[in-house]
Design brief:
With 163 residues, this protein is mainly alpha-helical. The protein is 66% helix and 0% strand. It has two domains: 72 residues; 72 residues.
């Protein structure tokens, strides 16, 4: 029995410590990417945090002493899974413009970082591309019209490799 960690066995305490270490590594990598202005796979980050904290909570059910570190990370967990206003607006645009799921999946496969396009170039392009591409351009134009503070496009739009 490990009296210092609050677990009945050293094995449980060891597993818990490994999860804490994994959490610290995940958070450290994310912070370094943030400070270096590098892109981060947000979905992967959320999954890593969720699975690690979930494992910690599961082990904490058998822990009889404080501290329970999963409670300390609760504010971050709540923030990561709180629906963002710009995501709601994006979902509304998607719902209004795309009736079939296949259109959306095709756009996600061809997704690139949004860059503003001049109206003359846009008109020339529209005449020479397919209907799916037209929907994609209309969708991007609507995203660009959202206010920057409500829709940070670098957060939502990812390159093909990240999707």
């Amino acid at each position: 029995m490990s009296i210092y960690g609050g677990f009945a066995t050293r094995q449980l305490e060891s597993q818990y410590n490994q999860l804490i270490q994994l959490l610290l590594v995940t958070l450290s990598k994310r912070l370094l990417k943030f400070y270096n202005n590098e892109e981060c796979n947000e979905v992967g980050f959320k999954k890593a945090i969720s699975s690690t904290v979930g494992g910690m909570k599961q082990l904490e059910l058998s822990k009889y002493l404080e501290p329970k570190f999963s409670e300390s990370i609760k504010p971050l967990e709540d923030y990561l899974y709180k629906p963002k206003e710009y995501l709601k607006q994006t979902q509304l645009i998607l719902k209004n413009n795309f009736s079939q799921g296949s259109d959306i999946s095709m756009i996600r496969q061809n997704e690139q970082i949004i860059t503003p396009i001049s109206s003359t170039k846009l008109r020339k392009r529209i005449h020479s591309i397919s209907l799916t591409k037209r929907k994609e351009i209309e969708f991007r134009q609507q995203l660009l019209q959202l206010e920057e503070e409500q829709h940070p496009t670098n957060y939502f739009i990812r390159t093909r490799k990240q999707l």
